[in-house]
Design goal:
The chain contains 7 helices and 18 strands. By secondary structure, it is an alpha+beta fold. The chain folds into 2 domains: 206 residues, Sandwich (Jelly Rolls), CATH 2.60.120; 142 residues, no CATH class. The strands form 4 sheets. The protein has a 5-stranded antiparallel β-sheet with strand order 1-11-18-13-16, with no helix packed on it. Strands 7-4-9-2-10 form a 5-stranded antiparallel β-sheet, with no helix packed on it. A 4-stranded antiparallel β-sheet has the order 3-8-5-6, with no helix packed on it. The chain is globular and about 65 Å long. The chain starts with 12 loop residues before the first helix and ends in an 11-residue tail after the last helix.
C-alpha cells in the first residue's frame, strides 16, 4: 500500500492530538454527522443461522492515531456466482417505489444510493433493509422484490454479473454502464464481493487482488487512477471502468471521494464438507414408519456489513457570480533545473516544498506539468482544478483556451463550465451573441437568451 504522506514523527501529545482531531473532523464531514444503522434482517431469519457478534477486545488505553494513507476498505456485500463463457458486468440506476414489481435475473448487488429500501427474496421470504451506502447480494435465478420505504426518494444501483447471452434483458431503470464481454474468466463458481472505500484528500490506495477483470465505480468525488508505467487519469462520480489487473487510486482533490469495486474472488468447488455434515447424525425412523425426507439446507443469506453513509451529492442552484477581471497568467520564468528527477520544471527541492512528487511530473493528473503550473499558469500543482470551475487545469489550457487560474475567464458572470456545459456560450467572450449585454446579466438579471442577439432587455 502506497502512502504519499510520511508517518507522524515522535512528537508531543498536542501535535498528535491535532492529527486525530483533523481526521475526526474529516470523517464527520463525510458521514454527515451520523453513522448508519446496521442493515436489519426480518424476524423470518432462523435463529440457527443468525450471526453472533464477535467478542470485542478490551479498549486500548489511548485512542490510536489516524494514519493518512491507511486503507478504509469495507466489504459491504458478498455471495456466490457461477461463470461459464463470456460474461458482462452491468450497472443500472433504479428509482424504487412502495409498490415495486418482482424481478428475477442475474447475480447482482443492490447498492443503496439515497433513501431506504427493503429487499425481499421471494423464494425464501428473507428480507434486508438498506440505507445509503449499504448493499446486499441477490443470487441468480431467485425472484426478488425491491421496495422503497420511508419518505425520501429511494434510488439504488443494481450491479449485475451475467452471461453475455443475457445482456439483452433490459431490466428496470436506466443502464449506466455495460462492460465489453469478458472472455478470460475461468469457468466455475466463485465468491463475488462488493467492496467500498473512502479516500481522504491526498490518500492513495490499491485495488485488492481479484480473479479476472473487476468493476470500479466512483460514487462521489473524483479519483485519479493509474496502472504500472502509465500516467494517472481522472475518474469522476457516476463513472465506471473495468480493471484488468493492479490499479492505484489517489484522491488529488480537496474533498473526500468514495468508490466501490465489484469483483470475482476465490473459486468455490462445492467440496467444503456440507455433505459430510448432513450425514454425521443419521436419524432412525420408527419401526414400520416411512423414511423421513431429507432436510433441505437453509438458503444462506450473506451478512450485510454497514458501510460509511454516503449521501448522493445534490447540486446547489446556480447563483450570480460577481464579475471579476481576468488575471493574466504569469510570464514564463526560468525554473531551476538542478536536481529535477522527473524533468517537470520543478527541482526536487521545490517539489518537496510544494508537497508534490519528484518522480511524477504531473502530480495532480490535470494535464499540466508541475513546473508549468507554478512558473507559467500560476496554478496549483496539487489541485487538478485550481479555480474550482469544474474544468481540469489542462483542459482549460489545451482544450477550451480558458484561464485555469480564474473560474470566469471572460468576466461575464458565468463560470467557464457553465458557459461550456450549461448555456453553450463562449467562455472567452463576455457577450457571446454581441447584443451589448454580458452573458451573465442575460441569464441572472434579465432572463434573456445569451445566444440570441434579438433576445435582450
Amino acid at each position: 500500500m502506497r502512502n504519499d504522506h510520511p508517518p507522524c514523527p515522535p512528537c508531543d501529545r498536542a501535535s498528535r492530538a491535532s492529527v486525530v482531531r483533523a481526521a475526526v473532523a474529516a470523517a464527520a464531514l463525510l458521514l454527515g454527522g451520523a453513522l448508519p444503522a446496521v442493515a436489519q434482517q426480518s424476524p423470518t431469519t432462523d435463529a440457527s443461522t443468525a450471526v453472533q457478534p464477535e467478542a470485542q477486545p478490551a479498549a486500548p488505553a489511548a485512542a490510536p492515531e489516524f494514519t493518512v494513507g491507511a486503507p478504509h476498505v469495507q466489504s459491504i456485500a458478498q455471495g456466490i456466482a457461477s461463470v461459464d463463457g463470456p460474461t458482462i458486468w452491468r450497472v443500472r440506476e433504479v428509482g424504487l417505489d412502495p409498490n415495486a414489481q418482482q424481478e428475477t435475473g442475474a447475480a447482482a448487488f443492490t447498492l443503496q444510493r439515497t433513501g431506504a429500501a427493503l429487499i425481499r427474496n421471494d423464494l425464501t421470504t428473507r428480507r434486508v433493509r438498506l440505507e445509503p451506502g449499504q448493499a446486499s447480494f441477490q443470487p441468480a435465478g431467485d425472484p426478488f422484490t425491491r421496495t422503497a420505504i420511508g419518505s425520501d426518494p429511494s434510488i439504488v444501483w443494481v450491479i449485475e454479473v451475467m452471461p453475455q447471452v443475457a445482456a439483452a434483458a433490459a431490466g428496470s431503470g436506466t443502464t449506466l454502464f455495460t462492460s465489453d464481454p469478458i472472455t478470460d474468466y475461468p469457468a466455475g463458481t466463485f465468491d463475488v464481493e462488493l467492496q467500498r472505500s473512502v479516500l481522504l484528500p491526498g490518500e492513495v490506495t490499491e485495488i485488492p487482488p481479484h480473479t479476472g477483470p473487476a468493476l470500479l465505480l466512483v460514487s462521489s468525488g473524483r479519483v485519479q487512477y493509474s496502472t504500472v508505467g502509465a500516467p494517472p487519469a481522472p475518474l469522476g462520480a457516476g463513472s465506471a471502468m473495468m480493471i484488468p489487473g493492479a490499479l492505484t487510486l489517489r484522491n488529488g482533490d480537496t474533498q473526500p471521494a468514495a468508490f466501490a469495486v465489484a469483483m470475482l474472488g476465490d473459486g468455490v468447488d462445492g467440496s467444503e464438507g456440507f455433505a459430510a455434515a448432513a450425514q454425521a447424525a443419521p436419524q432412525t425412523a420408527p419401526s414400520g414408519a416411512a423414511p423421513a425426507a431429507p432436510t433441505t439446507a437453509p438458503h444462506l443469506v450473506p451478512t450485510v456489513i454497514p458501510p460509511v453513509t454516503e449521501p448522493t451529492p445534490i447540486p446547489a442552484p446556480p447563483a450570480p457570480v460577481p464579475v471579476e477581471p481576468t488575471p493574466v497568467p504569469q510570464q514564463a520564468q526560468a525554473a531551476p533545473s538542478d536536481g529535477d528527477t522527473d524533468g517537470d520544471g520543478l527541482s526536487d527541492a521545490e517539489e518537496a516544498a510544494y508537497g508534490s512528487d519528484p518522480l511524477n511530473k504531473d502530480y495532480d493528473a490535470d494535464g499540466l506539468l508541475d513546473g508549468e503550473e507554478v512558473y507559467v499558469y500560476g496554478t496549483d500543482p496539487l489541485n487538478n482544478d485550481t479555480d474550482g470551475d469544474g474544468l481540469l487545469d489542462g483542459e482549460e489550457v489545451y482544450t477550451y483556451g480558458t484561464n485555469p487560474a480564474t473560474s470566469d475567464s471572460d468576466g461575464d458572470g458565468l463560470t467557464d463550465s457553465e458557459e461550456i456545459f450549461t448555456y453553450g456560450t463562449d467562455p472567452n467572450a463576455m457577450d457571446t451573441d454581441g447584443d451589448g449585454v454580458p452573458d451573465g446579466e442575460e441569464v441572472y438579471i434579465y432572463g434573456t437568451d445569451p445566444l440570441d442577439p434579438n433576445s435582450h432587455p
